[in-house]
Amino acid sequence: MPELPEVETIKRQFERALMGRKVTSVDIGLQKMIRGRADAFARAVSGARFTGARRRAKLLMLDLSNGYTILIHLKVSGQLLYMPSETGIDKHTHVVFHLDNGMDLRLRDVRQFGYLKLAHREEATGMPEVRDLGPEALDVSLEQFRTALARRRNSKVKAALMDQRIIAGVGNIYSDEALFCARISPERLVSALDADEEARLYRCLRELLNSSIMRRGTSVALYVDLFGKKGENQHYLKVYGRSGKPCEICAGKIKRIKVAGRSAHFCPSCQK
DNA sequence: AGCTGTACCTGCAGGC
DNA sequence: TGCCTGCAGGTACAGC
């Protein structure tokens, strides 16, 4: 599912492929994919050009020449796709931006959890879904990371890592992988981490996010990049989606448990 | 306030 | 076989 590296991948590809392109019209097949009025959304976007792309946590923001910004959250199964307009539209494609070069930008979302939202450019970062986010996972210093985590000292470390108000951009895949890399159990309380463990977790998280960006993200389930291509990082996962399989370090079985209502994958003998 | 549980939605795995 | 149930996922929101 799209987390920080996947959204960053789409953002970078969008910047190279769609900057300056004009939206000639917008088709909305499923109104509820738009937060706010769908007809007003289509009217506001039609005729504008893309002038910029930004990412904040897992949110993608597309700036338009008319002063509007489109906020996009892909949630679990959303795909943002750039393809020729003549390509057939399947039942999971809910919004189509027709462009001035014979291409479309399409939102496809099997689970229908994602959304598009229109904002004025200067107000986009003040919207509740942006305003309440904690510091970017790749922008924090070790000291800021410690301070942020401490805000949930009584929580399990897995829950704190995935809390977007604490650290923004990390989801289930990268929290599991970072905890394995740092040899910390997802069930450990934040308050029980020592300084060395916090530092390991910080470095592991950064390295894993950065290397996944280099590999255009992790394609488990439905994630594909802007061109509909799978990423490569799924081939490097150590624990996520590997329950029952041998740990690469100790050959013991990877376990899956529930932590704070979410599935957590880990090696019980390597992670303490 | 701060945490946990549940709804949202669909496809798919597993059981019989 | 094929039906049926349960589960996965990120976030918003209800409720303790």
Keywords:
272 residues, 11 strands, DNA-binding, 5-stranded mixed beta sheet, alpha+beta, 4-stranded antiparallel beta sheet, single chain, 26% helix
Summarize the structure.
By secondary structure, the chain is α+β, with helices and mostly antiparallel strands.
- Molecular shape: globular
Q: In this structure, how is the largest beta sheet organized? A: 5 strands, mixed
Looking at how many chains there are and whether they match, the oligomeric state comes to single chain
Strands of the largest sheet, in order across it? Answer: 2-9-5-4-3
> Number of helix segments?
7
Query: How many runs of DSSP E, i.e. beta strands?
Result: 11
Secondary structure class reads alpha+beta
Radius of gyration: 20 Å
- Give the helices and strands as they follow along the chain: HEEHEEEEEEEHHHHHEE
Distance from first to last alpha carbon: 27 Å
Strand content: 15-25%
Residue stretches low in confidence (pLDDT < 50, at least 5 long) are: none
Residue-averaged pLDDT, rounded?
Answer: 94
What is the helix fraction of residues, given as a range? 25-40%
